[in-house]
User: Fold this.
Amino acid sequence: MEVSLDLLLSAVVAGILLGGFYAAVSIGISISFGMLDIVNIAHPAFIILGAYAAYIVNSTFGLDPILTAIIMLPVFYLLGAGVYQVYYAVFERRGDEALRGLAFFFGLLFIIEVGLVLVFGVDYRFVEAPYIGPTFRFGMVDLPLRMLVPFVVSMVLVVLLQLYLSRTFIGRAIMAVSQDRLALQLMSANPGKIKRIAFGISIATASLAGAFLIIIQPVEPSVGRDYIGRVFAITVLGGLGSFPGMVAAALLLGIVESITATFYGPSWSPAVAFGILLLTLAFRPSGIMGR
Amino acid sequence: MKRVLCAWFGAVLLLAGMAPLTAGAVEPIKIGFGMALTGGLAGNGKAALVAIQIWRDEINAKGGLLGRPVQLIYYDDQTNPALVPGIYTKLLDVDKVDLVISGYGTNLQAPAMPIIMQHGMTFIGLFGLDVNHQFHYDRFFQIQPNGEDPSISSIEGFFQAAMTAKPTPKTVAMVGADAEYPKVALEGARKIVKQLGLKIVYDRSYPPTTVDYTPIIRSIQATNPDIVYVASYPPDSAGMVHAAHEVGLKATVFGGGMIGLQFASLKQQLGEMLNGIICYDMYVPSTTMNFPGINEFLAKYQPVAKEEGADQLGFYLPPFAYAAMQILTQAVETTKGLDQGKIAEYIHATEFDTVVGHVKFAANGEWAKPRVIFVQYRGIKGNDLEQFKKPGTAVIVAPAEYKTGDVEAPYSAIAH
Assistant:
């Protein structure tokens, strides 16, 4: 296909917007897997849970899905902290977290999925919001609000979390637990408590990511499975534990997918995106901005 | 008093002892199937199950099948084809079911076929595309009204309708998911496009995990096609419609084989964005499709589906799942037994009157005469589901026998 400036520009902009969404779904994994070394394979299921929370409140009270997600942040935080407490007591404390912990999160994934099926059935669910449908047009570039709003909120979320991690005591302790758990203990901080807070934050981000997901596409309980590979790939590509790296990886993946879909055929998108992941890891095993 | 109590206990014990004997005397007829109750196809799987359960309750209220109560034995195939052979092996070898029907979808019917054939069972498929193509099994029947050559007949109505649009289309863009159904559909579309002498300007597929469809629609737009044919699954269909609306797709005709646009949830979500799209369907409320019993069935189905979280309109698969059970009922009752060969023979030889109209099967088990309809969405206002329950929002533009209106074009000029 002929590469025209407007198509190229549109593809890049669409990729950036898509990357913003990818960053939102990956940020929780960036905390749990990248910083805490917890392979939370159930994270996409928590995202779907977030999507259903947005759906319930939106369909019952007509409340905006993103506002709902913000209101639900403490609930998801507590849920995450609770899950970590179980994981810690049953696996981590005994040193069984490697394989049995993985099985635990797999189990959690299926329990959440089947729970949603039992409660809500299997029909596709969606939300209504004034920004689903309209498009801003700036010259050659279209900005669908359905993608733009999640992108903006996602970037705000990333910046706030980065500030929290770098400027607050707890935030620094989270960074410390990811780097040297023993040293943190020597500073008389409780790594278990810090990890519980961090894991709670990681699950809290699923509330927002879920709202973004249901804004972008209709959701049914099993749709989260599609994102497992992608979120872990973004976290690894960006560099474990690095927020800026994760955002860069999410934007890169979004832009590459978008350009490939526009000019070379959409079926090549995953191959090119994961090819970039392999190349990056070959030349820079720690990822784009890895520790 | 003691004597009275002893007599009472004696009677109770006697009745309790007799109970299994009584139950044993009317052994139920077991009907087994796997069904997508979780996973990507669960939306339709659950809807089909509701329809089959309605049939079971009705038949049991009438005294059962051959005078025996009907018992459904089903397992969730999780939309996972790998689980299907195990499910049907268990149904036939462990549960010892008397009759089998299929789960929903091509991918979940094909893996059952070798087991079904090995046991010589009659097998009615609940919506699959050309499942018997490789197997040539004479006891297979497909309730989806695709016709003898499903790869063509389930698509040609779209192009027949599209070619009536003004200005007459000359170019076509085709796009579909990298999955079984869209691949078969796109293959059929290529054959038809060649016959019609249309020029293909875009022919690509996309991975089913795609999130944003705007780059694909922009890419299609850049080729300036008259017809845009899409073969997609529900989430992609929603993504494509959103993208076409957001990009402002300029085409004479847009639509095709978009699974999902038939479902209440997507109709409700997409609302006015559907206006102008031409898409395949199986049944819509209209004067030409007012089959005996369909309204009564939907009146029973819709409240149950709402409670169960299944498709609230139930126009797509449920009436056909119910019709499949009507066919099985008639075949079993007329042949007065469960002989699979006789049942299959009877189904081949008979034209059935069902809630989806007259059904007659061809030698390959598909409908002898295709009856996939193509509708153009029009006049949809807002997201109220009630508007879809009445004729008018989905105008049948093909085939001629069921037509309720002409194609309105171009798509880009219709407010959506």
Q: What stands out?
A: The CA atoms of residues 85 and 266 of chain A lie 42 Å apart.
